[in-house]
Specification:
Helix content: under 10%
Radius of gyration: 17 Å
Structural class: mainly beta
Distance between the termini: 56 Å
Order of helices and strands: EEEEEEEEEEEEEEEEEEEEEEEEEEEEE
Largest sheet: 11 strands, mixed
Amino acid sequence: MTTFDFGFGPVPAHQHPNGRGWVADTAHVDDSAYIGPDARVSGNARVFGNARVSGGAQVYGGAWVSGNARVYGGAWVFGGAWVSGDARVSGGAWVFGGAWVSGDARVSGGAQVYGGAWVSGDARVSGGAQVYGGAQVYGGARVSGGAQVYGGAWVFGNAKLAKSSDYLLIGPIGSRAAFMTWTRSDNCIAT
């Protein structure tokens, strides 16, 4: 039996035939997926379709990566998170805690998406930004520079949150049709 230490002690594992990255025997990776030589897939993670995990990235803890999604550049996807479609997670970003990243969305540059948050469409989350607590970032929205979106807030359309003093505190009020947004920056555009 071959074992590999994913950081929590050695477990039964094998090298994936497409890329030679390490995969725990408890994880599932389709033959069509690519797991690069320095990438890791462990726990109960699943990698489907033409998805690619490479560049020191890790997928574990019940996470799913599917479609043509890419996880690379030291990114981590774990804790029941989903990355699908043509989405990209890179640059040390973390997606975890039941979060979803889908469509053509990009999460990069140390950003974190977690706590049931969604990033989808052509949205971008980067530069240490955080999206969490059921928040949604979608359409062509951009969240960067340490900005935070949380508490069920929605950022969409061409909205831009671009620095750590930009944040949305309040999401849906009463119903999905009524929203209140607030930001501390005059340079922020929120729609």
